[in-house]
Amino acid sequence: MSNQSSPTAASQPDAAPPSARKRRARNTRAVPPLTSAATPFLSLPTVHPLVRRHYRVATSAIEELVDLVEHCVRLLIPGALVHARPRMGKTHAIDYAALHLNRQRPELLVLRMSCEHHRTQFEGPFFNALLAAAGVRDTQPASISQKRFALVRRLSEQLQLRQGHIVVMFCDEAQRLSTHALEWLRDVHDQLAQQGVRLITFLVGQPQLMEHKAQYQLAGDEQIVARFMIEQLHFRGIATAEAAATCLASYDLTRFPEKSGPTFTQFFCPLAWRAGLRLEHSAADLWNAFVQAHASAQLQGAIEIQMDYFTRAVEAVLTSAPDWDSLDLKLGPAHWERAVRESGYVAAQQTVRNAS
Predict the structure, then answer these.
(1) Of all helices (H) and strands (E), which one includes residue 234?
(2) Fewer CB within 10 Å: N-end or C-end of the chain?
(3) Bridge partners of residue 80, in order along the sequence
(4) Kindly report the CA angle at 106 between 101 and 108, in degrees rounded to 5?
(5) 195-221 residues labelled b (16+ CB within 10 A) or e (exposed)
(6) What angle (nearest 5°) sits at the alpha carbon of residue 237, between those of residues 69 and 168?
């Protein structure tokens, strides 16, 4: 959730062939918080990012998102739409992509805005949210025109410090954005363009986003579609054993503290690690445990594991591993079946099914 040679593995050209993408995905890493490297080693038991659930795991889907972001930045494509069912890890993916850009492309200004639902469509709350995303914490201007001016000035100042000209903005839960909000955002895009600043917007949200796009196309709202919905990506959960291996490998590769500490797996079971234990080798067992749980509960549809439950299963094993740790420890199906039960995956799916 939130390396050895680089902070993230998503740094290859967008035009990489599928085989290259697959190889790259298998080398992805979990990315701890930027501040983790300064944490004293002796305090690790209480502040380890896995215990606090404050880390980012790379997945194949996240790598696809990073590819899309890099593609749009390289070609200055103004907007893209990313949609997924709830709990698939969209916010987690935004965290990862934003961290990747901050480390690999420091000249970019990266903003994140969580879109809120408003009963009435007023510009004031919308621009307050934009100003907050831009880091304006002081008393905000009263009038709409002042808010617009303050926003554009803030973005321009931040870009000057970075010696850049591109703002990348991730709008989380973007299905909540109204037509009015997108029109106001388009105005900001145009104002920035007049100053030579490029705004690239990623609308990240639930499947309703695709319905909104279809409605805009039918209504002839070409400006909205052409500005914010040129590219699109269906963001998915864990759907194969290979994708599970990609995630598990992250725990085997990531160190905390970031450059000098043990890997996540090594920290929780040092003896077994020394003997060759790697979570990646358990991908088939973990995947099969989810498949069996899905089938036993008679859940409908193809299995697609949300990141929240996948990481909870891994955390259940790692936080219990110190009790089992030995040179002979072998993680088998029984360990992962218990972990899947503890993850809450089945209960969550049944709740959704009963509510629908």
Answers:
(1) strand 231-234
(2) C
(3) 202, 231
(4) 75
(5) eebbbbbbbbbbeebbebbeebeeeeb
(6) 20
Say how many Å lie between the first and final Cα of the chain, rounded.
29
Query: Strand, helix or coil at 65?
Result: helix
Task: Please give the single-letter amino acid code of residue 146.
Answer: Q
The amino acid sitting at 168 is V
pLDDT tens digit at each of 356 positions of the chain: 443 333 333 322 233 323 333 434 434 445 444 333 333 333 445 689 999 998 887 888 999 999 999 999 999 999 999 999 888 889 989 999 999 999 999 999 999 999 986 655 678 889 999 999 999 877 667 889 999 999 999 999 999 999 999 999 999 999 999 999 999 999 999 999 999 999 999 999 999 999 999 999 999 998 899 999 999 999 999 999 999 999 999 999 989 988 889 999 999 999 999 999 999 999 999 999 999 999 999 998 889 999 999 999 999 999 999 999 999 999 999 999 999 999 999 999 887 666 55
pTM, entire model: 0.81
> DSSP assignment of 176-218, as one string?
G--HHHHHHHHHHHHHHHHTT-EEEEEEEE-THHHHHHHHHHH
Residue with tokens 């039918």, as numbered in its chain: 218
